[in-house]
Amino acid sequence: MRLLLAAATAAFSLIPMVSQAESVKLTTLEWPPYVMADGSGTSTDAVKSAFSKAGVTAEVKVFPWQRAINLAQKKPEWIGVYPEYYAEGSDAEKGGDRCLFSKSFGVSPVGFVQRKDSDFSWSSHDDLKKHKIGVVRGYSNEEQFDAMVAAGDIKSEQADDDAQNILKVAGGRAAAGVVDKLVFEHLTKNDPAVAKVAGDLVFNDNLLVEHGLFVCFENSDAGRAAREKFNSAL
């Protein structure tokens, strides 16, 4: 009886460990329609679905973007952050300083919103030098474009978020603004201020870049294990 009780106790004590091993916590940001304020959205659906196929439950929580990045990088309880664009400077396997990138689980078409009555057009980065371009402060857009903005070769109008960026274009503060196409379409339908000016705006057909979307996993053994499970299900 004592042996049976000891065995049962030992088995019971393993249950929390198994449960913990089969769940992960990830940080994210509010970025509709990819991630909504409550953590739902197309990116969350894709991430949770992949983990579920691998037998893992993914818990997600929305934070301001910089905090989401810091938590995933520095706090072991958060195994990764999504959705991220790939950046070699962040890729720990390429000499970067942050994290381990997953396989791509989606795409983000990034281009320019402009007024319908604007003469803005472009086919090369040099064409952008003659325009003031709206950008969201702290966002990565496209490598060459960002480098030209940082060097002052492209004049920029800074905004705090995508909605403000779009409104500045509508108000003539910038000739065009960099934005994800799906984000733009979402805001024209769901943000009252953007909806009011949507009829004056158009998304330029020439994309700046189509980014892949990634989970950026903690640079640790646990992060590698979580990435392997995630990637195996894509």
Task: Give the gist of this structure.
By secondary structure, this protein is of the alpha/beta class. The chain has helices at 2-21, 42-53, 65-74, 143-150, 162-170, 181-190, 192-197, 221-232; strands at 23-28, 57-62, 80-84, 99-101, 106-115, 132-136, 155-159, 176-180, 201-203, 209-218.
Compile the SSE list and pairings.
Elements: H1 2-21, E1 23-28, H2 42-53, E2 57-62, H3 65-74, E3 80-84, E4 99-101, E5 106-115, E6 132-136, H4 143-150, E7 155-159, H5 162-170, E8 176-180, H6 181-190, H7 192-197, E9 201-203, E10 209-218, H8 221-232
Parallel strand pairs: 1-2, 1-3, 6-7, 6-8
Antiparallel strand pairs: 3-10, 4-10, 5-8, 5-9, 5-10
Average pLDDT level: 92
Helix/strand/pairing class, anyone?
alpha/beta
- Low-pLDDT segments, ≥5 res: 1-20
Number of domains: 2
Largest sheet: 10 strands, mixed
CATH homologous superfamily assignment of the largest domain: Periplasmic binding protein-like II
Helix content: 25-40%
**The CATH topology of the largest domain:** D-Maltodextrin-Binding Protein, domain 2
Reading the helices and strands in chain order gives HEHEHEEEEHEHEHHEEH
Give the C-level CATH assignment of the largest domain: Alpha Beta
Please indicate the percent range of residues in DSSP E strands (runs of 2 or more).
Answer: 15-25%
Gap from first CA to last CA: 47 Å
Alpha plus pi helix count: 8
Rg from Cα: 21 Å
Shape: globular
- Give the beta-strand count: 10
Which architecture of the largest domain does the CATH hierarchy give at level 2? 3-Layer(aba) Sandwich
